[in-house]
Each structure stands twice: as C-alpha cells, then as structure tokens.
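Q: How would the structure tokens look for this protein?
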Amino acid sequence: MEKVIDITRSICEICLTVVPARIIEENNSVYLSKHCSTHGETKVLVALYPENYRELREAYFKLMKFKIKQRFYALYITNQCNLGCELFTCVGNCKDNKSENSALDLTMADLKFILRNKTKPQLFFLSGAEPTFNKEWLEMARLLKEEQKVIFLYTNGSQFKDSSWVEKLKNLKVDKIYFRLNGLDNNLQADLKAETIISKRQYILDIFKQVKAPTVLGVTLLKGVNPYQLKDVFDYALNNTFICEVNFTTYFRSSKVKDFPKELILTSDEVISILERETQGLITGAEMGLFQKFFYSYMSFFRKRVCFSTKCFWIFKSQTGEAIPITRLLDLKSVEEKLNKYVDLFNKNALLGKIYFIFILAILIKNILRNQPRVFKEIVRMGYYHIFNKRGKYTHASSRFLQIIISSCCRVIDMDFKLNEFCHAGLIWKGKQGEIKYLESIWEYLLANEGCRGVDLRKK
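A: Here is the predicted structure in token form.
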C-alpha cells in the first residue's frame, strides 16, 4: 500500500510538459510518481530507505525555508568539446558539440560586462562542454582572480598536453579542478559508451599533483558497468593528498538518449551501500544520514544554499595513515537529538534556532578537543571551506580531509520541482542572439535544453 510523502511537480518524459507528481512510499522504497493526462503514470525509484528519506526531506524544508541569494554561478564559456559522450553528458549535449562550434563562446568582453553587472557572486565554475576549448579561458580565469573571485575549473584534461601546463596552472592559482575520471580501469571506455582520455589519464593526474591544486575526481556510475571501480578510486584519493574530493554521480537521464534502460540507473542509497561494503564500514548509510542533517543545519545557520540530492561526507586522513569518519571525530551521535530539536526550533524561530545551534557547536568543539585536539584546526579549515568571505579570499579545504560526494541531481526528466527551488548553482551563458543570460537555477537551462520551454520553477 502506498503512502504519500509529499506533493510536487515533475516532467513527463514523453511529451516534456510539466505534470503533477507525488513522492510516495511503496514496497519499502521511495518513488517519484508522475501523472500525465496524455501518457499516464510513470514511477521513478528515488530511495531505498523510506524512513531515512522522509526524515531528511522534512529537515531540509524546515531549514531551507528562506529565499537565499545565489552566490555560485557556472560560467558556460563554450559549447565546444573534443569528446562525444553518449551517456555521461555535462550541462551541454556533448555528442553534438564539435570542436569548431565556437560561435557562442563567451569572450573577455562578455566577462567584463558580467562582472560590471553581476558583482555579487563570489564563486564561479568555469564550465561548458569543455571549457579549455575557449581560446580565452586562461585570460578569463586570471581576470576572475584579479577580482578576488573563487574559481573552479571543470575539465576532461585533454588540453593539458605537456609539462608546460604545470607552471601555467600554478600561476593561475585555480581554487579547485574537477577532473572527469569515471574510473581507473583501462577497459571502461567501450562499456561506458563515453569517450574518455584513458591513455592520458595518469599523465593528467600527475600534472595536477605537481601543481598541488585541490583536485576532484568525478566518477559517473552506471549499474553493472563501473561501480566496481568505487574502491579503487576511493583508495587512490585516500593515498594522494592533492585529491580533495571524490564526486560519485549517478547517471542523469536525458530524453535525448532514446530507449535507455531505467534499471541501469543507480540511486544514491545504492551507491552508499556499495561504499559501505567496499570500505568495510568506514562509510555507512546511517552515519552519512546523520552528517547530512548536521550539514543542512550548518549551512542554514550561515544562510547558504545546499542541494538535497547531493549527499556529502568527510574522511580524515591521520598522519599514521588511519582514515577516520567525521561523524566519529565529532561524536555526532551524542548530539543527534539536539540536532532534531534545532531543526524544529529553527523552523519556528530562526534566531532562537541559531542560538541553540551555537550551543551544539560548543559541545562538538569540546568533543574534538577532548578526543582529537590536533585535528581541531583541520576541522575549522573544512568548515570555512563552505563559508568563504565576501571578498572571495578562499581558504582551501584541509589536505587532511577527503570529501565524498554522492550526487543524483540534474536528472532533468526525473526532477522534483519542490527541491530544485533551492538549486545551489546558477548559470551564466551566451544566448543565440549573442545576449548574456543569467539564471538563478541551472535547472531552468537544463529544462530548456531538454525542450521543456517556459517552465517556471517557482510556480507552486
């Protein structure tokens, strides 16, 4: 028997129109149930543990209840890409993005216009199909650093062809590099139906290592294809201090990929279960859920956006080589009931809630000083990593912490409109007429890219 958890809206994957939808519990799982008046009902598996999902969703909406200004924008600087991925797409549709297609590239003049007219964002994500194919991307990055902005670079690394890039990237001082890896197995290319730079992968990683740039390993997962790579990627990240994060992303389904079997798409819960097994309990579903509630609370305290569909966890790497989960370092279990009280209190009165959260933080500081005093400075650095100041002087996350991200966001035709109102990333790009466009939520661009025109995410 089904139980309704929430009411929302979504997209019919056939006609791409907005349809009413429900989040339901059925057969001990959670589904997004969409009803199209023309094409009937479809269900998409969302989560495997209804009680955990319901508890986190309720906490999320109690904490993310205010209008929070967008301060993180993806700069879509080019529609060019040298790869032709069929399944693992970026914001653009890479299969159709040829290297010579530069007509809609952002220019330095465009960026100067953006900075004059959109000065509030502090963090910019240099993105696109493959941003390094924009001939002016280095100059853009330098200008953003001169303006004291935070820069993340999203890349497949294929343009970094020789050792001269070590010095170039060092001088650029990019704040973080997102490297799309997908796995360490050389046989993955055919299985993934995605072009990768397998022959150059280790060479590119060595360049990032020499630069000492905080690097993210991006791994898009498909059931039966590459989940066995989780352990190898995780171990590589633990053993290399320049790796600050591993981002495990479940495949985000597109209507443009016809006849793709839904049963191959992993849920976040399934990824967490694999990690729990492969890490022998170093990462567990229960501890990740507890940390997620703490993270929502922490971000709400500072009025920062956070994505519900992105689960995060921190692992501390001690000098002796021991890996320790953040939940055990802080002894979060000891304040679990207090976190629940904070969620309810913040929902009723944000000011009183914040005062109470300071009390919780005091307990956690006491825990860490009592159990692991040498780790305290590293935890403070990681906390500041998420709350950078208004001038954009960014403090890197501690190299002693590895952040694990499990993301099931950006699945456009399976979207839950109610969640996406708080999308943590906006988008700036050049329209077909050469005009500069701004969106508070990247979802509006993704919907348009699918062919869902005129959708208002804020409409109830």
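The longest strand covers residues 3-11.

Confidence is low (pLDDT under 50) at residues 189-196, 389-395.

Upvote if useful.
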